[in-house]
């Protein structure tokens, strides 16, 4: 049996098991199983490897995309090495563990398709990236490659980053693309949203939420109410999952 799975904590929001189980059935992929491995602390990662014979690949989600790196044997330099975060692990027949980042691919492809559908040129955009974890690293790398200027937003301001308290109508008027890479608003905490001045949003704004469960977060609901264009994380999830499958089978 070829085993695959997802590590992270918590995993109550995840669609990955359903996605890959349906993929195996629809495409007639034999002897394959996808499981969820809730991992409160990354130090227990080696135990999962020991207890799961036939493990061929893993996806990695919050909060372990950076913390898992010391447990790996190598990083793919074109993705995880460049970004500094891992969301896909390929386990070779000799037991070596190679880290990749398919979040970059999923985010960039989905963002470009969405912006094209909105008739928005990337060169004209400036972005706010909410959060500074592993997902944010993939997002900011993609924005850099697309020549989209950005500023990170987190709890504390730094020389280069905004704090949420610094966001006002003036800032939002300059940054029309707002990307939530934080878990705020993820099921079951669906009544939460990033602390933005939502009354400063306009129909010229574009809100992208990496969260995909629920399909429309409170962040996106507030954006839609202001006339902004909105996009959730499901297309990114699907694109990065297919890229991960490609890596595991290569």
pLDDT under 50 segments (min length 5)?
Answer: none
Q: Judging from the principal axes of the Cα atoms, what is the shape?
A: globular
Helix content: 25-40%
Going by CATH, the architecture of the largest domain would be 3-Layer(aba) Sandwich
Radius of gyration: 18 Å
CATH superfamily of the largest domain: NAD(P)-binding Rossmann-like Domain
Structural class: alpha/beta
What would the average pLDDT be, to the nearest integer? 96
| Number of continuous helical runs | 8
Number of strand elements: 12
| Topology-level CATH name of the largest domain | Rossmann fold
Q: List the domain count as a whole number.
A: 2
What's the end-to-end separation, in Å? Answer: 18 Å
Strand order of the largest sheet: 2-1-3-5-6-4
Order of helices and strands: EHEHEEHEEHEHEEHEEHEH
Strand content: 15-25%
List the helices and strands and how they pair.
Elements: E1 2-8, H1 16-26, E2 32-38, H2 45-51, E3 55-60, E4 74-75, H3 80-83, E5 88-91, E6 97-100, H4 103-118, E7 126-130, H5 134-145, E8 149-154, E9 162-163, H6 169-174, E10 177-180, E11 206-209, H7 218-225, E12 229-231, H8 234-249
Parallel strand pairs: 1-2, 1-3, 4-6, 7-8, 7-10, 8-9, 10-11, 11-12
Antiparallel strand pairs: 3-5, 5-6
Helix pairs in contact: 4-5, 4-8
């Amino acid at each position: 049996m070829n085993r695959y799975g997802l590590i992270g904590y918590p995993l109550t929001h995840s669609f990955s098991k359903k996605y890959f189980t349906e993929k195996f059935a629809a495409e007639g992929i034999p002897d394959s199983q996808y499981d969820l491995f809730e991992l409160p602390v990354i130090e227990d990662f080696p135990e999962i490897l020991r207890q799961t014979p036939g493990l061929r690949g893993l996806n990695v989600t919050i909060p372990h995309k950076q913390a898992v790196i010391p447990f790996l044997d190598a990083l793919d330099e074109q993705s995880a090495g460049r970004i500094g975060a891992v969301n896909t692990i390929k386990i070779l027949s000799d037991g070596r563990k190679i880290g990749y980042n398919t979040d970059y691919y999923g985010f960039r492809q989905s963002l470009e398709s969405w912006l094209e559908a909105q008739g928005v040129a990337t060169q004209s955009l400036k972005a706010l990236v909410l959060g500074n974890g592993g997902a944010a690293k993939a997002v900011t790398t993609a924005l850099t490659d697309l020549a989209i200027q950005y500023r990170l937003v987190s709890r504390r301001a730094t020389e280069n980053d905004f704090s949420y308290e610094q966001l006002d109508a003036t800032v939002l008027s300059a940054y029309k693309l707002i990307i939530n890479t934080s878990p705020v608003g993820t099921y079951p905490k669906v009544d939460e949203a990033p602390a933005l001045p939502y009354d400063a949003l306009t129909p010229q704004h574009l809100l992208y939420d990496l969260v995909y469960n629920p399909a429309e977060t409170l962040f996106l609901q507030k954006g839609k109410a202001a006339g902004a264009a909105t996009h959730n994380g499901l297309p990114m999830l699907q694109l990065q999952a297919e890229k991960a499958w490609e890596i595991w089978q290569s």
